[in-house]
Amino acid sequence: MTEDNFEDFLKKAAQSYNTPPARTPRDDMWSAIQAQRAAGPHVIYGGGSLTAQTPARRFGSRIWIGAAAAAVLLLATGVGLGRWSARSTGPSAAVVVGPPKTGSGPDAGDRTPETVVPGGTSGLASTQTGGAGGGEALPPREPLRIDGTHRPAAFDGTDGKVAVTAPSLNSSSNSTSNTGNSAYQITTVRHLSEAEALLTSFRTRSTTDQQMDAQLGSWARQLLSNTRLLLDSPVANDPQRRPLLEDLELVLVQIVQLSPGSTPQDREMIEKTLRQDHVMTRLRTAIPAGSQRGS
Amino acid sequence: MQMVAYESRSSVNDIQLITRVVAGDAAAERELYEMYVDRIYRLAFRLAGDDELARDFTQATFIRAFEKIGSFRGESSLSTWLHSIGVSVALNGLRKTKRQRNREAPMEEGLTVGSTRIEADPDLKERLARAIDSLADKYRTVFVMHDVEGYTHEEISGTLNIPIGTSKSHLFQARSKLRVALADFAPEWAS
């Protein structure tokens, strides 16, 4: 009995709980429903009427998109700055130059430059494989790799390969600078020695041996590339070395341009250049006595 | 709309009305709204205790109903289906607003909310309201629907998608808690 009394008491008392208004605001809610259905599905509770949430959500999406774009931009800028600073101030890139393959014949006259890959702005990008004019292909050698600053390779003195990290031009360390100068010096001497060997082979070749001309042309092409690299390097700051390298470049260009059908006058012109400019003499003078020659 | 899929629980009038709404008949939408808006609004107001919230819940209920009515298969009556949406919208909305108000409530106000203040309130109406508010959602919803708004256990079962026995159990639990909370007023119902 007491339980039934409590239920009745509770039902009566509970009627006062959150008593709704006598009149339902039908028209107001219907208008809000129509407006909301026209605007979009999202609602915000507690505003008395449905409020479109779409603009806020769009704004939030834009914030995230903008933040993502800013993050990507910042990352790209950081990577770019890092690469730029590494190029401009960091230690130079490794330079690896393979020596010409020494074959049979006098003074390596049949050696054939195989791969020369200068980089960047030097404008040199020649690659040859095997001897021209039907020469047999030679085993692959270490390629020449150089970065955009075209610092020349240095000879490491071991097994005929050159693999030297060239120093930075802006280095403030004396030891680093000395090491770099030595590397350039060794590279230059080696290059000049090879050039001397090439020119000697050219002067002593048979005038009727067109196959030899083709092989010499290939060899000269490699040396021409390295000559231009040296001209773009600190070696060219030497007032004696630069004219020599420029004259050597001219002669090498003439040899490269020799074709099997070239006339004796063309060869004579090269000989004349060699004589007039004393290229051979200057080359031998520039190569210190006792230094390793073009092997 | 597969009319043949409707079960007998949906009346012929409901089926015809739904068919027109699905076909895009604006007058049918308004008709459906007028048929059920009072009960939906009253229940929303009972649960929310706030006119603005009740309006929002009611509007959201009908918006969602118009969006989903194409998937209505007549497995329950249209009234039950609408009330299911309404209760779901109201309870979810109340949870959101409760969290928001808790975040916005100042520290001092939070400290004053406790049993001491409830016990100090001698008014039965206020005491009962606080006691009902303190019930868990599942108990409070069943209690409001049954004892306040007069829904049957069958209707509550269909609306909340719970067995009838569970509805009765929830009501029993709610009444027991309220009895304890209103123990000071025992002489009023014992007499």
Explain this structure to me?
The complex is a heterodimer of chains A (295) and B (191). Chain A has helices at 2-14, 26-39, 54-89, 174-204, 210-231, 241-256, 264-276, 279-286; strands spanning 94-97, 162-165. With 295 residues, chain A is an all-alpha fold. Chain A has a domain at 91-286. In chain A, α4 runs antiparallel to α5. Chain A starts with a helix and ends in a 9-residue tail after the last helix. By secondary structure, chain B is mainly α. Chain B has 2 domains: 1-104, Rna Polymerase Sigma Factor, Chain: A (Orthogonal Bundle); 113-182, Orthogonal Bundle (Arc Repressor Mutant, subunit A). Mean pLDDT of chain B is 85; it is low at 1-8 and 108-121. Chain A binds chain B through residues 2, 5-11, 13-18, 20-21, 24-26, 28-30, 32-33, 36-37, 41, 43-50, and chain B through 30, 33-34, 37-38, 41-42, 45-60, 62-63, 66-67, 93, 96-97, 100, 124-125, 128-129, 132, 143-144, 147-148, 175, 178-179, 182, 188-190.
